[in-house]
Amino acid sequence: MKKRRRRKRKRKEENAEHGFIGYSPELLQNNALPDYSPGESFFTVFGVFFPAATGVMAGFNMGGDLREPAASIPLGSLAAVGISWFLYIIFTFLLGAICTREALRYDFLIAEKVSLVGFLFLLGLYISSLASCMGGLYSAPRILQCIAQEKVIPALACLGQGKGPNKTPVAAICLTSLVTMAFVLVGQPLPCAWASA
């Protein structure tokens, strides 16, 4: 019994070190009011909400695959934005009620530290990041295919073709992948370039 109490006390001390105090109405009240770092404002902090909108854009871009896009896109988009907004607000208030302001401001993985199973939180984070990247790699070729089919840029007409029942834009996917890899390689200097500098 004493060992269990010691373990609990030690865990509480470790959690307090990481900024996780536990539910406190006073903490929620203190964290509810704005206290921006120097150089920050409402609009710079609002950028945290941006990822909730990028998934909706991926849904727009793949709307051509739907049976009834005119009915499904507005309903799905509004539902996605509403659910994302609701979950972001709940998550924000929960973290604000159990963590110190310093931990929320400076520890970008505080949610992993306070979650019941931190490994699952990280796994979900990696999977959602990968899904977002894959959505971008699939939706950009769809837009390119539509531009080619409408002959907005006549030189791209060859990218308007699709394969299979969904008219998958294979040529546009290849072109988009090549352009993406080129920009990634340009952004990552080679190790030998550092050695010669």
UniProtKB/TrEMBL annotation:
It is found in: Membrane. The chain crosses the membrane at residues 42-60, 72-95, 116-138. Residues 16-186 form the Amino acid permease/ SLC12A domain. Its main location: membrane. Keywords: Membrane, Transmembrane, Transmembrane helix. Pfam families: AA_permease. It is a multi-pass membrane protein. It comes from the Eukaryota. This is Solute carrier family 12 member 8-like.
